[in-house]
C-alpha cells in the first residue's frame, strides 16, 4: 500500500466524520432528552460500523477481491461473446466465400472455367438450338460435361431406361419468348437439341447479360462469359 502522511490521514478522518456529524446534528436538535439519547446511540453505532469498514484493511481487501471477481466475470463473458461473434462471422464469411466461388453450380451455371473442352461436347455457348421434341428455339448460355443437378431433380427426369443420359453433356438454354413456351430457361441433354443457323432473333430479357451481338452463326459472348468458356 502507498504511504499515507499526516495531512492525508487528517483529510480522510474529516471526511469520515462529516457525514455522521451532519446527520447527528440535524436529528439531535428539536427533540426531547430520550429521543436525543436514542439518536446519539444510533449515530455512534453507525459511525463505528462505518469506521471499522473504511479503516479495516481486511474489509478493503475483501471489497477489492469482490470487485476483481466481478470484473473478471464480466471480462470473461465479454470475451466469450466476442469469440462467438467472431466464430459466427467466420462461418458466415466462409459460406459467403464458398457461394461466391461457385454460385449457382447446378444446371450449367457453374462459374469455373470450362477448359479444356472435351471433344464429345459438340455444341457451343451462343449457338441457337431447336428442341427436337418440344419444338422451342433458344440459345445456349452454358454447358456441363454431364448432368450437374440435385439428385431429386434427376430421378423423375431420367427413369431407368434413360439413366445413360445423365452422363452425357447437358446445356443451359435461354428459351425464345416468341415461341410462347411456358418456361424461360431449360437444362437439356445434348441428344434432345439440334443446332440451327441464321436465326438471329432470340427474344429473352437476359440476352444482353450474356451476349453483345450476333456474328451470323452464333451470338457473341460478353467478356465475362467468354472467360468461362474460352474454347467456345
UniProtKB/TrEMBL annotation:
One of its GO terms (molecular function) is DNA binding. InterPro entries: Clp_protease_adapter_ClpF, Hemimethylated_DNA-bd_dom, Hemimethylated_DNA-bd_sf. Coiled coil: none annotated. Residues 120-222 form the Hemimethylated DNA-binding domain. Residues 1-20 form the signal peptide. The keyword Transmembrane does not apply. Keywords: Signal. It holds the Pfam family YccV-like. This is FBX21 protein. The gene is Fbxo21_0.
Amino acid at each position: 500500500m502507498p504511504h499515507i502522511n499526516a495531512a492525508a490521514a487528517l483529510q480522510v478522518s474529516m471526511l469520515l466524520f462529516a457525514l455522521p456529524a451532519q446527520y447527528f446534528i440535524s436529528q439531535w436538535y428539536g427533540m426531547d432528552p430520550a429521543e436525543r439519547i436514542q439518536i446519539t446511540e444510533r449515530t455512534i453505532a453507525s459511525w463505528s460500523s462505518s469506521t471499522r469498514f473504511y479503516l479495516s484493511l481486511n474489509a478493503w481487501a475483501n471489497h477489492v477481491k469482490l470487485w476483481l471477481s466481478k470484473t473478471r466475470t464480466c471480462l470473461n463473458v465479454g470475451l466469450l461473446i466476442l469469440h462467438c461473434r467472431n466464430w459466427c462471422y467466420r462461418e458466415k464469411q466462409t459460406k459467403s466465400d464458398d457461394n461466391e466461388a461457385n454460385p449457382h453450380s447446378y444446371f450449367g451455371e457453374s462459374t469455373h472455367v470450362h477448359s479444356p473442352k472435351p471433344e464429345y461436347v459438340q455444341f457451343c455457348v451462343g449457338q441457337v438450338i431447336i428442341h427436337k421434341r418440344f419444338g422451342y428455339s433458344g440459345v445456349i448460355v452454358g454447358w456441363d460435361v454431364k448432368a450437374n443437378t440435385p439428385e431429386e431433380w434427376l430421378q423423375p427426369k431420367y427413369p431407368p431406361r434413360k439413366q445413360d443420359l445423365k452422363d452425357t453433356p447437358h446445356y443451359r438454354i435461354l428459351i425464345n419468348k416468341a415461341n410462347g413456351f411456358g418456361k424461360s430457361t431449360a437444362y437439356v441433354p445434348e441428344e434432345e437439341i439440334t443446332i440451327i443457323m441464321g436465326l438471329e432473333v432470340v427474344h429473352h430479357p437476359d440476352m444482353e447479360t450474356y451476349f453483345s451481338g450476333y456474328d451470323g452463326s452464333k451470338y457473341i459472348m460478353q467478356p465475362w462469359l467468354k472467360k468461362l468458356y474460352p474454347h467456345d
